[in-house]
Amino acid sequence: VCARQFVPRYCRGPSPPASQMPLLEAEKRVLACLLCFCAVIFGGWLVLSPLGGVADTHQLETMFLELEEELEEAQSDLREARAEASSLREALRRAGVPSPALSANSSSFYGARHSSQPASQPHAQPKAGTAVSTPAALEKIRDPCAGRPGATARGSGPRPIPGGDLEASGVLEAAFAARAVEGELIFLSVGDTRDHRRVAKDPALKDISTDFLLHLLANLRALGRENWLILSTRRLCGRLQAEHCERSCVWSTLWDDHPGLEPWRLKPGDMFLMWAQQWRYVARALELGYRVFRADTDVYFAEDPYPLLRSPLLRPFEMVVQHDFASMLDNNRRPACSAPPRRPADSAVAPGLQTCGTRPRHLALLNIGLLYVRSSPGGGAYAAINETWAAFLSKLSGPPYKPKHLNGRVESQALIDQPFMRKAVDELAAPDSASLPPKPASHWAVVSGASAHPYPAGVTCSLADQGGCGAVLEARRKTAFLVQLVRPRRPLAGLRRDERIALAPDWLFGRGCLTHVRRPLSLLRAALPSWGAQDEQQRASCTPTAAQPAPGAAAGVLVATHFVYSMAVKRQRAFAAFGWSLGDARNRSRSAADDDPCWRRSDTAILFGHTFFEQSPSKTVLCAMPKDGAPACSCCRSLPSLAAKDSALREKARAGGFVLESSNQHRIRVDGHFSAMEGCNDYQRFWDRR
């Protein structure tokens, strides 16, 4: 009911008093959901009371979450209807056209798509050849999004789209053609987090997932890349259009009626379903001749990745995907050469390939949060994409997975797309005679980072100070990476091509880990013997580049950083501390406050580790949080290895110094934590759900 007063800020217009406005169908749904929600809460109290006996609290929690989802869906429909009505009324008012009265049957005004019942009479259609008259004043109405990024086409860049179901005739082809630039398409997926499994695992995603998307879009826009297409739900797409003028989203009804959804406790809009849909559409884009960059939204690009993907170093590979290494599984061992790098005698077999060893495939894990593919039907990389969504469908068509530890409940996590792609690549792997030594199908080849130049001709690093580019190049040349040859199981339309997949060096696609620190000055004084009064006068820094680089000594080296194993709140705070919150409307380059000592602007900081830091002198970076969480320039300091100081730091913390905290401000033990930060070698340690 409170949502009756909500109107997006770009669509405000005069409205009659709420008391004179009849209930819309969406409002009736809100009231019904509220009543049902209250009834279930009361029923749950009865069940959990001594008179009600023992209840399955998990099932009760699930019922609450599902009712919350239905309530949010009804409220969202209501907001969408109200926003559209207000926008139309304002347009008619400016045009001098009398506004039609709101009738009790709201569907006749808003159209059949806002009604739960079909329209009783079809809309009258003009006869063939008859011109439809439009008041001249309507043509002068200013689009409230006109001039805003993403709402209008600019030059040869991507064109805005009205949205649509990719399963509707012609929508997919039109959307790809409008959004792609020079055959390149960035494919993003974002749901409205109605999936109660994700909400239960990380509740803040409910509010933050859209913020991540907006930051990423602003980040890509700063790099001059706006060729994205967003797969979302119809409801969230409407919100992006109405509230953010983001006219680049679509939705899909693919597999919405699949009989396996209910047994697996899925429904249209759930992220597990959307992730599978996206791979079908990535495959479709490859079939139409596009090259696709698929990215998670909790990613930051400190540099434009496209020149690097076209460089002599990475050009030979049809797919480049993030490597999920530096885990307990492989004892934190980075890919490394075990023999002098050699090229195959026949350079036509694999141009630019210079290998220096092999590695077993169980130590070569893909993370599909960052993936670039330039394959086509008949190619091995295309087959890996196709088999990913096909494996999802096969699993969805079978009996749901009910592990013993869930006591008969369905484990929908078994439908996550990443294991499907890992398995597909392993099964498509083939022996590679171009690798020296020759690589069996069960292994990946190690490629030297010094095999070729990481930039195409005429392109240098992203630092404004070009003098630092030599150091960046040297750091990147030290990084070996893995390559696999993949072969389709069978020819497709007579085509069957071997192709190579590279697990990207982690300076290109890498994983960061994060920890909250309270009283960071205490940590700096304990970690840096040379720390003095002059250091405490450090000022915040905004680097004059297209996008704020990685913090500290990582500046200019790291390209795309993915915080996949940190909770949403912690990721959001890290973006603010690093100066990466580009989607925040309050964002600024500098302010008067930035001239004050930045280590005193807040009593909290973010400690940043990265897989790449394992091979660099600086093992972590400490960045002060901005005051009151407002966007600000970064205030960071690189730290050497602290593993040897573990006991001294532990005593410092016990004596009332710094405190390591979880996302929910629970104290974290110092023992071993700094060692784990150096290389991010423990996934679960930085999730800190408590």
Could you explain the architecture of this structure?
- Helix content is 30%, strand content 13%.
- Helix 1 runs antiparallel to helix 2 and helix 9 runs antiparallel to helix 11.
- The protein has a ten-stranded mixed beta sheet.
- Helix 14 links the parallel strand 12 and strand 13.
- The protein is α/β, with parallel strands linked by helices and 690 residues long.
- The radius of gyration is 27 Å and the shape is globular.
- The helix count comes to 17
- What characteristic shape results from the CA principal axes? globular
Helix content: 25-40%
Largest sheet: 10 strands, mixed
What amount of the residues lies in strands? 5-15%
Strand order of the largest sheet: 3-2-1-4-8-6-11-10-9-7
- Poorly predicted spans: 1-21, 47-56, 99-142
The total beta strand count reads 17
From the N-terminal CA to the C-terminal CA, the straight-line distance is: 34 Å
Structural class: alpha/beta
Rg to the nearest angstrom? 27 Å
Mean pLDDT: 78
